[in-house]
Amino acid sequence: MKELAAIAEKIRNGDRRALSRAITLVESLRSDHRQQALDLLAACGTGRQALRIGLSGTPGVGKSTFIESFGLFLVRQGLRVAVLAVDPSSSRSGGSILGDKTRMALLSREPHAFIRPSPSQTQLGGVARRTRDAVHLCEAAGFDVILIETVGVGQSETMVAQMSDLFLLLLAPAGGDELQGVKRGIMEIADLILVNKADGDLRAQAQRTCADYSGALRLLRKRPQDPEGFPKALLVSAIEEQGLEAVWGEIQALADWRREKGIWETTRKAQALHWFSEEVRSQLLEELVRDPNLATVLAQEEGAVARGEAAPAQAAAKIVRQFIESNNA
Ligand code: GDP
């Protein structure tokens, strides 16, 4: 315990090695590590708040390049920047779209930056939990901005949006008919759409894409968390470091407005409650699956469901009833 307090102190002083080891601890799947991790998270406290920015985009749009340029831009403003990743591919196949070590070579050398690849676990839910813990630790370590990166596939975006204050969607210049390619659901969670690669031969195409998305955004239903003019589409060039100041300006304007209106607080509270109920759900499930009294009946019911002899809901009700009984006994 004394040791945990010392590690927490190091983290609060911004020690990146201690932070890195703490994240390794929260990512561990060992149950004895889990208790230590929870103690450490508690010891780190909840005092500080960073600006949490979610960022998504399909492979190849320039996420790493953008994070490198934008991260360096923020560091030059005197800010401390942490980069976390949620990579659904790494949980499924062990291979990773985001986790390559050579990414963001310049930013990773900055003393005021911290880059952490995605935890690789079998379930996306597990990855989300650990990333939430990592966000908490990075806040305790006093980072001003936490960028949470994910790939543009399905659930992982919703998950990252649920742990971010702001959500950015990165796109590449596209032909006119490709607008359909971006799912409506993703456009609905984006606060800023950044059309990257607005340079050289791609510039004119990027301008057209940006105009198309501006138009499409205006057609979306107005959201209560937006001031006039948001969400909006902007042009950037990650390679030429163009448009970064404008992006940061818009992020700050939006964040300030939301803070002023109390939306910031309300959103954080709703997110905390969301993760609380997710935790209750998954911890209960873990307890249930681990319960030795249930192993046989669980296997039996699985078999019955697979053979079509029991309805899933019926089998689940039976398991839950037995779980409650076995814990009351
Ligand atoms: P990620 O898969 O989304 O992380 O994309 P990367 O950052 O690895 O970039 C994919 C490719 O797009 C690389 O060849 C980059 O050099 C290129 N790229 C990234 N940003 C820009 C940009 O602003 N302009 C141009 N022209 N190319 C870019």
Task: Name its key features.
329 residues; alpha/beta; Rossmann fold; Helix Hairpins; 2 domains; seven-stranded parallel sheet; 14 helices; 7 strands; 56% helix; globular
Please, could you describe this protein's structure?
- The chain has about 325 residues and is of the alpha/beta class.
- It has 2 domains: about 45-260, P-loop containing nucleotide triphosphate hydrolases (Rossmann fold), CATH 3.40.50; about 275-329, Helix Hairpins (Orthogonal Bundle), CATH 1.10.287.
- Helix content is about 55%, strand content about 10%.
- It contains 14 helices and 7 strands.
- It has helices at about 1-10, 15-25, 30-45, 65-75, 90-95, 105-110, 125-140, 155-160, 185-190, 205-220, 245-260, 265-290, 295-305, 310-329; strands spanning about 50-55, 80-85, 115, 145-150, 165-170, 190-195, 230-235.
- Strands 3-2-4-1-5-6-7 form a 7-stranded parallel β-sheet, sandwiched between helices.
- Strand 6 (about 190-195), helix 10 (about 205-220) and strand 7 form a beta-alpha-beta unit.
- The two termini are about 35 Å apart.
- The chain binds guanosine-5'-diphosphate.
- Guanosine-5'-diphosphate binds next to helix 4.
